């Protein structure tokens, strides 16, 4: 059985990593409580970075609880494409219970995969039409 860990290799660690995503956002997945920004990477696996401000989640306990939920749901996603993903928190997160947060995040990960497939399909379709 594979150990389910959250190693440094699947995290955005440096400000430069975050900057690359913010400068080259190719995938946006909005949600009432979250915003996902993503850019492709060449690593062969997804990485995640978390941004939760005091403005939206006033207490450290709330921020840490949400971060734990995001990390756990991300860790369980075995088939995410090679993307650098930033998860931003929006207002209203502090009112959600853990099952609601998990359900929202699972829906978001599903939408990220779907949008990535659509994004990957689009350029090849444009090239095929240009060759005719």
UniProtKB/TrEMBL annotation:
Name the InterPro entries on file.
Ribosomal_Su5_D2-typ_SF, Ribsml_uS5_D2-typ_fold_subgr, RNase_P, RNase_P_CS
Kindly state which keywords UniProt assigns to this record, in alphabetical order. Endonuclease, Hydrolase, Nuclease, RNA-binding, tRNA processing
- MF terms (GO), sorted A to Z: 3'-tRNA processing endoribonuclease activity; ribonuclease P activity; tRNA binding
What EC number(s) would the UniProt record show? 3.1.26.5
Q: Keyword RNA-binding, does the record have it? A: yes
Q: Which one GO biological process term can you cite for this protein? A: tRNA 5'-leader removal
Protein name in UniProt: Ribonuclease P protein component
Organism this protein belongs to: Marinobacter litoralis
Q: Which gene encodes it?
A: rnpA
């Amino acid at each position: 059985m594979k150990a389910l860990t959250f190693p440094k290799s699947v995290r955005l660690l440096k400000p430069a990593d975050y900057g690359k995503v913010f400068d080259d956002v190719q995938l946006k997945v909005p949600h009432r409580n979250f915003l996902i920004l993503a850019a492709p990477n060449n690593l062969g696996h997804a990485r995640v970075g978390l941004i939760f401000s005091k403005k939206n989640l006033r207490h450290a306990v709330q921020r840490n609880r949400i971060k734990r939920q995001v990390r756990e749901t991300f860790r369980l996603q075995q088939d995410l494409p090679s993307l650098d993903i930033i998860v931003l928190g929006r207002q209203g997160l502090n009112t959600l219970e853990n099952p609601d947060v998990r359900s929202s995040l699972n829906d978001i990960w599903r939408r990220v995969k779907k949008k990535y497939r659509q994004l990957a399909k689009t350029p090849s379709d444009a090239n095929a039409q240009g060759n005719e």
